[in-house]
Amino acid sequence: MLSFARGAVLIAVFVGLSLTTPVAAAEPESCPGLIASRDTLFSRAALRQDEVGLTFVGHATFLIETPQGVRIATDYSDGTRPPVTPDVATMNKAHSTHFSYSPDPGIKHVLKGWNPAGGPAYHDLTVQDVRIRNVSTNIRSYGAATEYDGNSIFVFETAQLCIAHLGHLHHTLSPEHLRKLGRIDVLLVPVDGGYTMETFDMMEVLRSVNAPLMIPMHFFGSSTLNRFLASAREHFPVEFSNTAAITVSRATLPKNSKILVLPGY
């Protein structure tokens, strides 16, 4: 099975390269090249030193793989897990679909986006070739009361890219949030339009962060996604991928901000 998976990845890489030779290289606004299907995992051999693998597992969970093979699962939960044990799992607490009561014991680093003892969570961790840090935000708790520091935006810095996962964000971002975030190249965005934020407010977040590549997550079927995209098209071009796994590099980032939809829900 392992040799078959590696073969599938190599074939996919070959196809991706054949589709992105000189012509694609001359089109800097093209989306990152696709290298694998949803069910195929990245391997170290499939990524160059300037590439990051990004797979939409589902809901708010992405599998991020660095050039040195560090695997990270975002908003890791009991219901949505990648098919491999990640080295790092990040979590948020707004709903049980964003954290795990019993994470895989093989995970070396489990990072909670909230502080069980109170106050903001603080993470600034380097694992091989990736730095992982967080920016604390608030959530609405029961009765619509504000629970301060209940969510974290996790930022993953690797291969000269800064990838931010908004988690279960419940409010727009202040200048201080934006300062702490810094430059963001890839933004993973909850687009449900209600459980997190109204679409109008999420558009404000997207415009304020101004990442070159924005990828929707946390939607519940095509109607929810399409409602978000209808609003998003007023501000950004929208493209669709036919696979949930892509590679991203600094060289292939769009020149102007755009939204790339990966299959999933």
What does this molecule look like?
- It is a single chain.
- It is built from 4 helices and 15 strands.
- It is globular, with a radius of gyration of 18 Å.
- The chain is 18% helix and 31% strand.
- It has one domain (2-249): Ribonuclease Z/Hydroxyacylglutathione hydrolase-like (Metallo-beta-lactamase, Chain A, 4-Layer Sandwich), CATH 3.60.15.10.
- The protein is of the alpha/beta class and 265 residues long.
- Mean pLDDT is 82; it is low at 1-45.
- Strands 7-8-9-10-11-12-15-13 form an 8-stranded mixed beta sheet.
- A hairpin with a 5-residue loop joins strand 8 and strand 9.
- It starts with a helix and ends with a strand.
- The chain has helices spanning 2-19, 175-181, 199-209, 222-232, and strands spanning 34-36, 51-58, 61-65, 71-73, 88-91, 109-112, 124-127, 130-140, 146-158, 161-165, 186-190, 213-217, 238-240, 245-249, 258-261.
- Keywords: Signal.
- Residues 1-25 form the signal peptide.
- It holds the Pfam family Lactamase_B_3.
